[in-house]
Write a structure and sequence with these properties.
Number of strands: 11
CATH topology: Lipocalin
Structural class: mainly beta
Helix content: under 10%
Strand order of the largest sheet: 1-2-3-4
Strand content: over 45%
Radius of gyration: 13 Å
Shape: globular
Length: 105
């Protein structure tokens, strides 16, 4: 399980049950709001209604309300950092020690 991120009355975290899954829970009740069958051991990051998360060899931007993937950025090796927004870019690192700056859509 990754570290949780609290935002907008929700708890966002990656859980592991035979594979990683990014999950949103209601903060008040613990009710599962949505689960995306993609994720990693790295904590997600929230900004402006969007969740930034690593998933295998990709960095994701996910709608925090619906759990739908808005953008996916492929990498040649495993993404080993939490993706972070920086203006119109998404920054993330990989297992090979490379830092990527992908143009956000």
């Amino acid at each position: 399980m990754s570290a949780p991120w609290l935002a907008d009355g929700k708890v966002f975290l990656n859980v592991y049950e035979q594979r990683y899954a990014l999950t949103a829970l209601a903060l008040a009740s613990g009710e599962e709001l949505w689960t995306l069958q993609e994720g990693s051991a790295y904590a997600p990051y929230w900004q402006d209604g969007r969740l930034y998360a690593a998933s295998g060899t990709a960095a994701l931007i996910v709608d925090g309300t619906s759990g739908k993937i808005q953008s996916r950025f492929a990498a040649p090796t495993e993404v080993t950092t939490t993706p972070m927004p920086a203006g119109d870019l998404v920054l993330f690192g990989t297992a090979r020690g490379a830092l990527y700056a992908a143009k956000s859509r």
